[in-house]
Structures are given as structure tokens and as C-alpha cells.
Amino acid sequence: MRRQWKSALLAVCLLIGLSGGAAAAGNEPIDLVADTIEYDSVRGVMIATGNVKLVQGKSMMTGAQAEYNVKTQETYIHGGVKVVKEDATLIAEEVRGYDNNHLIAAGQPILTKGENRLAGPKIDYYADKGYALVEGWARMDTADGVITGNRLEAFTQEERVVIDGNVHVVSETRKLDAVSDHAVYYGKKGEGRAVLTGNARAIQDGNTLTGNSLTIYMDDKAMDAQGRSKLVVIPKDE
User: Fold this and answer.
1) What is the predicted pLDDT for the residue at 216?
2) Which residues are paired to 111 by β-bridges?
3) What is d(CA 108, CA 162) in angstroms, rounded to the nearest whole number?
4) What is the mean pLDDT of the chain?
5) Long-range contacts of 215-221 (CB under 8 A, 24+ apart)
6) Residues 6+ apart with CB under 8 A from 236
7) Mean pLDDT of 201-207
8) DSSP alpha helices (H): ranges in the chain?
9) Which of 59, 149, 187, 220 measures 20 to 30 Å from 24, CA to CA?
């Protein structure tokens, strides 16, 4: 039975972007504690209920109830779910897993890794592709600011995020407020930038830059526009 619970925990850990670490941890022992633990051998369903806590290596998952179907490899964890591994934490009301690959976190899910945080009504994640999808509304917090939009796709292996619909970028450190129809955020160190397209407009220090496409560079805090553009500069009082 421990082997099957191990699969369930590893599947959830994949959601927090630690697939390599999860695989390495596969041989470590797992501790499962709950008020009750049941196993239906006919249905192939294991159910742990009440103060559920699974620990394996540096991974820990807690919740009110956890179910795992050994036949279908479906996982369902609900009731204040929290998964922690190293600097990554996932909080959600429920998490469902399919084929130890596709995971859905729902109920105000918040995924935090280092300085970055992702939130939305539901987070879909495919571990084999390193691909996450947030629809309805999405909010991504970084060390530099906040990006919101109607739909967000994260390509974790490329450190690239695509946001569509009512894109809004706010950065207090840059004194920047920008909007557009579409945006792509590149997070690799040394290549950090956000490219805003479609009705793009940015206000920084009172000056307004509009254009078909605006690029905001993360490292040197510069910004430029592509295509026909307009800049309105507000003179500063001396």
C-alpha cells in the first residue's frame, strides 16, 4: 500500500514544478498518518481520512481526505490541501490527479515557488510537458511586480508565460502601470522581459508610451516601443 501512496504524493509534487526532484525522491520511504486508513481491494481504492499527512523526503502533503485508485491512477485530495517541497508550496481546496501526470488544483489554488506566485480559479498542469493553464482570471506575482489577465499559460521548462485578455502589469519598483491585449513574459535570468502587444499602453513616472508593441526589460528597467508609437512626456517641476 505504501508504494501506491508514494505514487500519489509524487504526482502532486509534479504540480509544483519539481518533477526531477520527485523522481529522485521515489526511492525514499513514505510516512502516512491519518485518523483512519481504508483499502477496498475490489475497487482498488485507498482512502485516508482525517488529518491526513504524507511525508517523503523533503515533500509533505496534508489535507482532510486523500483517495487513490490503483487501477485508474486517479488521485483526489481535498479539504485544505497543502503540498510543500523545498521552496515550493501549493495551497488549494482540492487537487485531482490523472495518470500521475495531469493535475488539477481548484478552490482558490495558490502556487508559490521562490519569489513567484501564481493564482487563479483553477490550475491545470501537465507534468510531461511542463505546461500549466489558468483560465477565467489569472494573477502572477514576481519580485518585480504583478501581471493579471483573463488567461495564462506557463511553459515552465522555457520559463515563459503567455497572458491573454485584459493584461495589466503593475510594478511599484518601476513606478509602472501598463495594459495590453496580449503579453509574453520571459523569466530567464539575463533575458527577463515582458512583450506587450495589442492596444499596448504604459505609464511610467507620469509619462505615457503607446504603440502596437511595447517591451519592458527586467534587468536594466528600460522600455521601448515597436511599430508606430506615441510618447507623451510630462515636464517635471524643478
Assistant:
1) 86
2) 90, 118
3) 21
4) 83
5) 216/169, 216/174, 216/176, 216/178, 217/192, 217/193, 218/144, 218/192, 218/193, 218/194, 219/190, 219/192, 221/174
6) none
7) 86
8) 2-15, 19-24
9) 187
- Residue 232: exposed, middle, or buried by beta-carbon count in 10 A (0-12, 13-18, 19+)? exposed
Question: What's the CA gap between 146 and 127, in Å, rounded?
Answer: 25
Q: For residue range 108-134, what is the model confidence (pLDDT) as tens digits?
A: 999 888 888 999 999 998 878 888 999
Q: What are phi and psi of 15, to 5 degrees?
A: -65, -30
> Based on the number of CB atoms within 10 Å of its own CB, is 208 exposed (0-12), middle (13-18) or buried (19 or more)?
middle
State the cell numbers at 48: 485516508
Q: Round to the nearest angstrom and report the end-to-end CA distance of the chain.
A: 74
CA pair distance 54, 129, nearest whole angstrom: 26
Per-residue buried b or exposed e for 159-183, using 16+ beta carbons within 10 Å of the residue's own CB: eebebbbebebebeebebbbbbbbb
> What does each C-alpha distance from 63 to 39, 42, 46, 81, 83 come to in angstroms?
18, 25, 15, 4, 9
Alpha carbon of 177 to those of 67, 74, 87, 148, 166: distances in Å? 45, 43, 29, 12, 13
Burial of residue 113 (CB within 10 Å: 0-12, 13-18, 19+) is middle
Compute the distance between CA of residue 133 and CA of residue 125 in angstroms, rounded to an integer: 7
Residue 9 to residue 45: CA distance in whole angstroms: 15
Helices (H) and strands (E) in the chain, counts: 2, 17
Question: 147: which 3 cell numbers?
Answer: 501581471
Contacts of 175 (CB under 8 A, 6+ apart): 204, 205
